[in-house]
Amino acid sequence: MIEAKHLTAGHGWEWIKQGYALFMKAPLLWIVLLLICLVAAVAFSSVPVVGEPLISLLMPVILVGLMAGCQDLRKGEDLELMHLVRGFKQHTTQLVTLGGIGLVSQFLIFGIMMLVGGAALVSILMSGQPDVEPEVIMQAASGAGLAILLGLILFSLLVMAMQYAPLLVFFNNVTPLVAMKLSLRAFLNNIGAMLVYGITFMLLAFLASLPMMLGWLILLPIVFTSLYASYSEIFPAEKETGSDTQENDIFARDDQIF
User: Residue 119's closest CA among 138, 134, 141, 102?
Assistant: First the structure.
């Protein structure tokens, strides 16, 4: 039975340090991989009607490829461009199903928001038009207090449930719904570490945005590598206790620059 470990709040910072160590094992290739993903996402999103839903469906498939790259780096193997398609070779159906569940959940949440007085706001959010006047948005939001509150709560729960779900499907061979349940439990069990992790990332995001957004070339890959670091600590592989000490020593050496 897969169980999420309960970790102290300080682990939130450790995940970022470990993510940085993984990034530094192949920094240039990490930047190239993420740029490919961003260009592909922009290209797909420009396709009318089906573009953005397709991104949602394929997001878990692409994500696990990056996570497989993290796993291989931790094992001392190389990061490769082919890691981007690793998710198309294993558990693809379950991963696409997971993306579909996430997409349907988003529409259901928007539907609930519309039912409680947020129809105008939801229409603006779903229009995908970046040139909407701020005054229009403020007017739509002014009468949608309950809808905004419910939306924040439900979307937060969805994000928690989806955070580790693709990794659990791919690495632990569990079904999408079970993976979402385990992910939600893992987040809530480690809320202290998650707060430290999130607050630290917000500070780093501010700093990364100062020099013409150039800091994001480093920070964006660390978003993914630190996600794998947190997953591997919260859901450690079975019978890996003998290798944990060795891996921690490797990370400790890589983290000396901190």
Answer: 141
Mean pLDDT of the chain: 88
Structural domain span for residue 128: 11-232
> Which two three-digit tokens encode residue 105?
């959940």
The token duo for 166 is 């693709």
Q: What is the pLDDT of residues 188-236, one digit of tens each?
A: 999 999 999 999 999 999 999 987 888 999 999 999 999 999 999 999 8
Whole-number Cα distances in Å, 177 to 59, 95, 161, 162, 169: 17, 11, 9, 10, 9
Please check the confidence at residue 162 and state whether its pLDDT lies above 50: yes
Would residue 96 count as lying in a domain? yes
Q: Is 146 part of a structural domain of the chain? A: yes
Tokens of 185: 């439990």
CA–CA distance, 37 with 65 (Å, rounded to integer)? 11
CA distances for 129 relative to 55, 119, 120, 226, angstroms: 17, 16, 14, 32
Tell me which long-range contacts 112-115 makes (C-beta under 8 A, separation of at least 24).
Answer: 112/150, 112/151, 112/154, 113/144, 113/147, 113/148, 113/150, 113/151, 114/147
